[in-house]
Amino acid sequence: MADTFITPQGRRIAFHLTDGTGPAVVFLGGFKSDMQGTKAVYLENWARAQGRAFLRFDYSGHGESGGAFADGAIGDWYEDACAALGLVAGPVVLVGSSMGGWISLLVARAMPDRVAGLITIAAAPDFTEDSMWAGFSDAQKAALESQGQLALPSEYGDPYIITKRLISEGRSRLVLQDALPLPFPVRFLQGTADADVDMSVALRLLDHATGPDMRLTLVKGADHRFSDATCLTLITDAVAEVLHLT
User: Fold this and answer.
1) Residue 154 contacts residue 160 (beta carbons within 8 Å)
2) Active site residue 65
3) Are 27 and 39 in contact (CB under 8 A)?
4) What gap in Å lies between CA 180 and CA 105, rounded to an integer?
5) Can 178 be counted among the known catalytic residues?
């Protein structure tokens, strides 16, 4: 059973916190995913074996947390992540998967003093604008404006409900439009067979961000889940490397 806390905005967030040495590793999940996913649990087990503090949590409207998914937006989930960091003391190493990569970049930009290192997995920065809105047909854009939401098919279960607020609020959270300094060790991981986030996004992120120690690893044939045995080992190797450098 997960523990819970209430954010300053009044949202109930479910989490699992493993005690251990710092810097704590914090996992930030993807769009409509939850903290029971393969990568989150694998990382938790790895951290526990290392005696490392580890935190995983569900954004509002996701998993065991309160609220409705369709009511949320990037800014809400970013606020949830910032509040979750209040559960651990000192610097943290962020591990952001897909949308969690975007949110981890927002956290890093807002509070660089808290971040000792960053690992992203198939990061999807600015996806509401550059992928969703840019990919909508004129008819879909018109429907979103008039009806306030769209249902998009998903390979991962029920259709995604995309709201007008998700798109419009996301425009205030973009990270690839302005300077993005990342003054700590950064490792970007990306599969070449990712059908959800093209590897060009990872290349653009690498080119756009600035920092003293930034590397991108492309895994030929890996998909968006990035959760087979080889990919999971790459994730923990990247986390261990960044922790060694902190």
Assistant:
1) yes
2) no
3) yes
4) 8
5) no
